[in-house]
Amino acid sequence: MIAYDHPDAAKLIADLQQVYVDRYGDQDITPVDPEEFAAPHGHFLVGYLDGAPVACGGWRAHDTAFDSVVPGDAELKRMYVVESARGRGLARLVLAALEEAASAAGRRRLVLETGTLQPEAIALYTRAGYRRIPNFGVYRCEPNSLCFAKELRPAPVRGAEPRAVAGADGT
C-alpha cells in the first residue's frame, strides 16, 4: 500500500489523466480526496518493474447509498498501467490485489466507472467478472460512461481453515 499522493502515485495518476484528455478531451471529473484511499476506508497501490512505477489503482469505501451504490461498496479508482508495461498482466494483478484488500476490509462489492473509449478497461473488467450496473454519481447522465460491479468473496477468517479430524477409530 502506498499513499495516493505519494510522488510515484501522483506521476502515474497524472499520466492517466492525460489519457483521459487524449480520449475524452478533459480529465476525470470525479472529486477525489487522497485521504479516501487511506486505511481502513481505502487502499491504493503502485506496481513497480525494475524500480520504476508502472501500474496503480485503488479503492475507496462507500457507506452511504446513492444511485446504484449501496453501503458496504468500495469504488475502484485510478487503474492504470503505463503503455510500455502493458500486455504483461499487470492490470489483472493490480485488480486482484485491490479486490483482495477490499474484501479483507469487509467490503462486499466493488463498483467502478470506465468510459466507452477505453475498450481495454472494459475487457479487463468483464473478463474479471464485473457486470454492468446503472451509472452512478457524477457519471449518472454521461453518455460515454459505463459502470460495473462485482460481488466480492468474503475474506477467510483467520484460524478457520478446515482441518482433518480423526475419528475415534483413527479414520
Automatic annotation (TrEMBL):
CDD domains: NAT_SF (cd04301). One of its GO terms (molecular function) is acyltransferase activity, transferring groups other than amino-acyl groups. Pfam families: Acetyltransf_1. Residues 4-153 form the N-acetyltransferase domain. InterPro entries: Acyl_CoA_acyltransferase, Bact_Acetyltransf, GNAT_dom. Keywords: Acyltransferase, Transferase. This is GCN5-related N-acetyltransferase. It comes from Actinosynnema mirum (strain ATCC 29888 / DSM 43827 / JCM 3225 / NBRC 14064 / NCIMB 13271 / NRRL B-12336 / IMRU 3971 / 101). The lineage of its organism: Bacteria, Bacillati, Actinomycetota, Actinomycetes, Pseudonocardiales.
